[in-house]
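Entry:
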Amino acid sequence: MLIETNGFSLLTGQTGNTVTGYIFGEKRQPLYDVNVELLDEFSRTLARAKTNASGRYIFNGFPSGRYRIRVLTSGSDFAEEEQDFEVQNFRRVTENGATVTSGFENVQRDFYLKRKKPSDVTSRPQSIFGQNIPEAAKAKYENAIKLLEDKKESEGLKELKSAIENFPDYYEAIERLGTEYIKLKHFEAAQILLSRAVEINSRGNKSWYGLGYALYSLNRFEEALKTVAQALELIPNSVESLFLSGVTLRKLKRYNESLKHLIKAKSLAKDSLPDVHWQLALLYAHNLNRYNDAADELELYLKANPENVETENIKKLIKQFREKAKIKN
């Protein structure tokens, strides 16, 4: 299962510069699930993050240079905003000849979004989601996240439940607990929680996707398809939602539609999702009788997943599909 994160490290596992801040709406209300971009001095997008329930975003791991933070407000009645910043680090060569960078910076850039002028609103506005969360509930949630990050699963789940008890409509806590239950394969509980999450925030793409995944795992395929369609309405080019939609359509024997969604997911994923090759191979071989295409997808699957323990068996399957293709022709 693919779950989107609220932060983005450009250089995973490395230290470096950090830029963080908060996105506020009217009356300093923090805005949740807002898309924020980090751009370089040539306005090229380097990374994207979403704000958490406190309205906070963060980017880290980037080198010296000039950058821009852009708050994306498409589909809302808030105006888009940008802020520039620059970071400068120091480099020195050690006695061993190694180059060491020091003086990393932590930059703060907060945004107070303003409403668009009436003439700027070209479609029916959809509000960016924000909640006024009681401090006690927020503290419980933040502690839960820390515990989960520290691999203290039981304590973290307990704190999430406590945060929800303090504030029953706490969207981010409900969504996170539902997501954690999916990881634990507690799909019934996840379905209940994520159904509540989309009631609270109908524009929560992650909640719609997670709910669709839970329903799929419960073999409730018609409901899963309708749910993942909601996620795709919010983010049409979401790789994980297209993939889930594709495999669900195959379960419903809607093979041509399944193929369309899986091919689009494959194109957008750019080899980052090996399972899409596997699912396409199953579809081609077992439902469309396109054995050469099935073999091609399995070869791509092995290329993207070279450590697979079933490599030899998959190679045998590729050979079988090639032979079937010859017989068919």
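Residues 323 and 329 are 10 Å apart (CA to CA).
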